[in-house]
Write a structure and sequence with these properties.
The complex is a heterodimer of chains A (115) and B (115).
Chain A: E1 5-7, E2 10-13, E3 19-24, E4 31-37, E5 43-50, E6 53-56, E7 65-69, E8 75-79, E9 88-95, E10 105-106, E11 110-114
Parallel strand pairs in A: 2-11
Antiparallel strand pairs in A: 1-3, 3-8, 4-5, 4-9, 5-6, 7-8, 9-10, 9-11
Chain B: E1 3-5, E2 10-14, E3 19-21, E4 24-26, E5 32-39, E6 46-52, E7 60-61, E8 64-69, E9 74-79, E10 88-96, E11 104-105, E12 109-114
Classes of the chains: A mainly beta (115), B mainly beta (115).
């Protein structure tokens, strides 16, 4: 696609429910990133994929969070048993190779509200 | 730890005036990239400008320019001839060339351009 696409744009869920957030990166981009942006805060790195592999999952805040990427393209971030502190904007980004030499392009984010 | 500090949570500037946003960072690496991203209310993170640490010349993109002081680890953004559409959150970020793949972000500066 022309840009990084994320769905849903907005999601309201009840505490304790599971949610899935989807990211469709720019076609051909091998690197994919998930960030979390809480209200009034900067961006918190969650996980990085190179192809289908996730070399670094250290940013995932707890074992309720998981992510996968299939076919070197679409990625899904899953939050199990959601808590109110999970409320945030979840931003996905992609780049053509490792980010240090290339621009990272962001999607518009998925705004998650846990009530 | 690698950190990015934006000391101005909020700033305001009149249309057509010039404003400078501050950013300092901390890294033990010598080779890295620095970025300024803009996030308007739409939530889309848009790259404004990029600077390679090995380049002495300050990057410029139209009305946007940076003052990169490597020894001081300072990377400020200057917006000339401010426009109403420049109203947004501005995030400073960096990534290490050799060991990094995830951008480290500051907490952002909220810029309001007034008529």
């Amino acid at each position: 696609g022309a840009g990084v696409s994320q769905s849903p744009s907005n999601k309201v869920t009840e505490k304790g429910k599971d949610v899935e957030l989807r990211c469709d990166p720019i076609s051909g981009h091998t690197a994919l990133y998930w960030y979390r942006q809480s209200l009034g805060q900067g961006l918190e790195f969650l996980i990085y994929f190179q192809g289908n592999s996730a070399p670094d999952k250290s940013g995932l805040p707890s074992d309720r969070f998981s992510a996968e990427r299939t076919g070197g393209s679409v990625s899904t971030l899953t939050i199990q048993r959601t808590q109110q502190e999970d409320s945030a904007v979840y931003l996905c980004a992609s780049s053509s190779t490792r980010a240090e030499g290339n621009t990272i392009y962001f999607g518009e984010g998925s705004w998650l509200t846990v009530v | 730890a690698q950190t990015v500090t934006q000391s101005q949570p909020e700033m305001s500037v009149q249309e057509a005036e010039t404003v400078t946003l501050s950013c300092t960072y901390d890294t033990s690496e010598n080779n890295y990239y620095l970025f300024w991203y803009k996030q308007p209310p739409s939530r889309q993170m848009i790259l404004v400008i990029r600077q390679e640490a090995y380049k002495q010349q300050n990057a410029t993109e139209n009305r946007f320019s940076v003052n990169f002081q490597k020894a001081a680890k300072s990377f400020s953004l200057k917006i000339s001839d401010s426009q109403l559409g420049d109203t947004a959150m501005y995030f400073c970020a960096f990534i290490n060339s050799n060991s990094g793949y995830a951008l480290n972000f500051g907490k952002g500066t909220s810029l309001l351009v007034t008529p």
